[in-house]
């Protein structure tokens, strides 16, 4: 296994700038298609989302969420075994913004996609989603928790239909 080098502040800054650029690009269909043409783009985004600064995690999750809206990308996303566990982990333990974005990504992924619906059912995460939904519903007045709960509720309704 290759040894990970310690990142310098310049390297972290470059990562932040690139992720911000990718986030901006990912809001358009053309930008999404450019990102998807990069080999292992999804895996790289998952890696950035799993480690590093909170800002980089939020940017990586935002790019992934925006890519989930791309119907052509859904099959590529579903072929990535790490994506669903990553999004679920973000829903359960991410910052407020990361939770909202992750819930939205799950909703975008299952919306109008029978294959995504089947994959989520087969991944046996419905119970974990239900548990996360229950926690969000029981939170005191919080607009971000309400938005997360609504997105998870919509995902659960689709998965149960």
From TrEMBL:
Any one annotated GO CC term: centrosome
InterPro entries: ARM-like (IPR011989), ARM-type_fold (IPR016024), Rotatin (IPR030791)
A GO BP entry: ciliary basal body organization
The protein's name in its UniProt record: Uncharacterized protein
């Amino acid at each position: 296994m290759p040894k990970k080098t310690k990142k310098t502040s310049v390297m972290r800054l470059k990562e932040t700038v690139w992720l911000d650029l990718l986030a901006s690009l990912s809001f358009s269909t053309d930008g999404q298609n450019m990102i998807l043409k990069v080999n292992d783009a999804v895996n790289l985004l998952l890696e950035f989302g799993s480690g590093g600064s909170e800002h980089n995690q939020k940017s990586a999750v935002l790019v992934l969420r925006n890519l989930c809206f791309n119907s052509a990308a859904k099959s590529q996303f579903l072929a990535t075994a790490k994506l669903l566990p990553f999004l679920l982990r973000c829903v359960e333990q991410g910052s407020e913004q990361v939770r909202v974005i992750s819930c939205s990504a799950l909703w975008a992924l299952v919306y109008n996609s029978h294959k995504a619906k089947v994959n989520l059912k087969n991944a046996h995460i419905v119970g974990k989603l239900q548990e996360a939904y229950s926690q969000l519903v029981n939170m005191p007045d919080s607009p971000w928790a309400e938005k997360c709960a609504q997105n998870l509720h919509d995902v659960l309704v689709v998965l149960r239909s």
